[in-house]
Protein 1
Amino acid sequence: MNLRHKVDGQPAFVLHAYPYSETSLIVEAFSRDFGRVALLARGARRPRSALRGLLLAFQPLELGWAGKGEVQTLMKAEWQGGQPLLGGKALFCGYYLNELLMHLLPREDAHERLFATYAETLRRFADGVRESDLRRFERALLQELGYGLTLEHDAEGAPLDAATHYAYEIERGPVRLQRSGNSALSVSGKTLIDLARDDFSDPRSLAEAKQLMRALITHYTGGKGLETRKIFMELQEL
Amino acid sequence: MSTPSSLESLIEALRCLPGIGPKSAQRMAYHLLQRDRKGAQRLADALQHALAAIRHCERCNTLTEAEICERCTSPKRDATLLCVVETPVDMNMMEQTHAYSGLYYVIMGRVSPLDGIGPRELQLERLLARACDGVVQEVILATNYTNEGEATAHYLSEMLKSRDIHVTRIARGVPVGGELEYVDAGTLAQAVRERRSLAE
Ligand SMILES: [Zn+2]
């Protein structure tokens, strides 16, 4: 997008920030109406910068920016409040969401519903992480990006049967199996039906959904391992 | 006329400094070679000397010329307390408080998952070994109150919890002498969430 714009009071979250030149930052933000944007925060690393300490991931902000081209200039940032700081496991899960968004969201592509789901998920994280929140977010993310799962029927168009086993084929959907398979993409009909309803009360469905989502996300991120997953594993090795 | 290759490699080498782009590197290189060749020589000598002489302290991981730094061997320090900080600058700040007389461990970084920096990259198992020397009784986590500092503190507390070591975290809140009117809202919000009972 090469149009010059000026945006003000835009609800957004910082996904990641990295140093740029001696005193500035490049901020990757997820905004409600413009999706993922890259913003240059001039002087944000100076000791007395008003932006310092404000451009914190997982905190609801309102940002203003202007300019054209791929990296625009951050003009204003305001803290919105209402979101407790994440700590412990929730913080690592927050990083996981951000890494997914950094990998999968194209720049300047609005995803208002996903933005709401993201904000809601962070709010839930503040009371502790439930696996089901992660699965819901992953499903919403794939859906929004047009990689939605086929969960209404199998690849042949027949209704899903809870007692049957399926192999989930990425382009086609669930393909009926004669017996249970052992690949990550092999799931029971019950899991698929529960996933469609966002019902994660059955621990087996939850466990299978995790395997399925992991395989799908690995596929869509081009087979690259996620850094947050690697660090999560180191955390679990303790 | 093309740039001589030794000049080119100097410019390229200067770019390893934080915040130095190709233009600044070029300016620095020309300055050193044209206007201040003596200064350039001093810089080269100092760099070479520092590289040979300076290493990480075996106990606290900060930069030092000895195998074990002066602070770590000082009998005046309380060896039952170990304060964990991200950088040597943070350690100096702690020292300026005159409120702490224990020892330190300097991580030389922080956990930053999106930059691919985890416990392995930071060699946090060295800190674990240091904390488990049988003398340390309390580890004070003084990493920054940023998300990365918190992530680091969380990892360390999980790592040390199982080792029978008392783990504490420095407090955060309204600054000393701070008037609520001038405190930023985020700090105040967290201070309310982390409010404490007053002693009877
Ligand atoms: Zn030392």
Protein 2
Amino acid sequence: MRNSAEAAGAATAGWTQFWFCTADAQRPLQKVRIGLAVMAVWFFASHWTDIGLWLGGDGILSSQSLARFLNDADLNDLVRWRLSPLYWVDSPVLLRGYLLLGMALAVASAVVRQTRAVQVALWLWVLWLANRSLMLAGLEELVLVFGLGYLALAPADEKPHWSGSVALRLLQLHVSFLVAVTGLTMLSSLIWWDGSGVMALVAPVENRSIDWVDRLSAPWVHELLTHAIVVVAIVAPVLLWSAATRKVACVAAMLWCAVLGLLSSQWLYFATLAVLLQVFGWFEPGTKVGAESGARS
Amino acid sequence: MPTQLIESSRPLPPPPRVAAVVTTAIMLHAALIGLAYLAVVRPSGIQGRVIAGFAPYLATLYLAPEPNAVDAATAEGVSFFLARGERNEQVHRLQTKPSTDRSEAGWVDAPFLGAAGSSRQRRQQRFLTTIANLGQNDQNALAGRLTLPLIAADPDARMVRVIRLPNIMTNIVRDAEPAPYTAAILREQDAVRLVRVPAPRLGSAATGNQEPQP
């Protein structure tokens, strides 16, 4: 009886230490904040040339066109929670103004230390555009939104606060889980077992910045790369949580992002993921942000 | 010395009541993210119901991938696995031609959006993939609804189609498949309508004689 009470107490203390008392949480968060600000500028800039074409009043997915389509498809229930004020904006000029303001918020989020309001505003700005981009948005919006959302929980300055610790832990868990899920869902397809996954990734050459087909055509090259991509995606998220293997796992995960970015041309997605991996703080020798930093020394 | 530095930067925990509320929120949040992410390949009934039930949270905050919005919208980039060698991953092109003949001649690529590998091009591909999937599932009205704005700038077009380009992963059977969506453009004064042109179906039945055999 006493033992179980002690165990429960120890578990509660461990949980509290892990989530609320991470030492030195603000340093990696500040690095990630700057990195995500750059990604957010890139994200808004990437919409500059075609936002009016898609979302403008006469656009392909103007509010009216989209509403008619969703009505006909009986999909209103499914997407009614994709809330965004941009459904009421149809002027291409205003839409571009929205992008400009988003870029300004991104820059401000990297420099303003007095309040977290800027970070919250930037998160909302990206979120609203992602929600409005029905049928257009992809994984880059997903990682950017949750990354900025967790950062908005942390204080903007460098003073230690339990909310910074929670933000760091959520980011670490989410990023490592996302990489692991990528590996696990790859296993649902035969191409990631038989070694041709990489070739499937590079096959749509008209949609790729670099044509890798000839360079990877030797079976041993693309099969080895395919297996390495799956193994890193499944193993690295586990190794990231141990101090002894964190550095190796982080380097492997960063390389994984670089390789997949090059092969798939999903630059923004993998660059954002690489920025988010910095929450494991492997680059700063004095920083202890893994699971062990929750333990009292 | 380094230990002292680390200890000084360790925050104090919140009051117990706040910690309890935050803990509950974290657990619920983590469970929902886990469920939503693991539903990417094919959600079970339970997963689907939980995700739909928590849509005000997951969808409003864009925390989950698109829940197969238009069954169709699992286009490239939306799913974590990046590639599965499926039709959705082929490059899609919108083509028009100024005549209504059924031949393969005369099709012209609609103005191309964006450089290869750019975000702009990726958005276009996701959209065309949605049209192609709707067309393939015989959702002609919906495919037409999405296609109409794409041809607005081309008053001479009489036919429109979305095709999938062959690549190194496609075989001769897949390359020979008809375009997933082909439509004739009917213009009546200011109104424009699209009428689906039925695609020839591949089948095992003999096609030379339409009369039923005794």
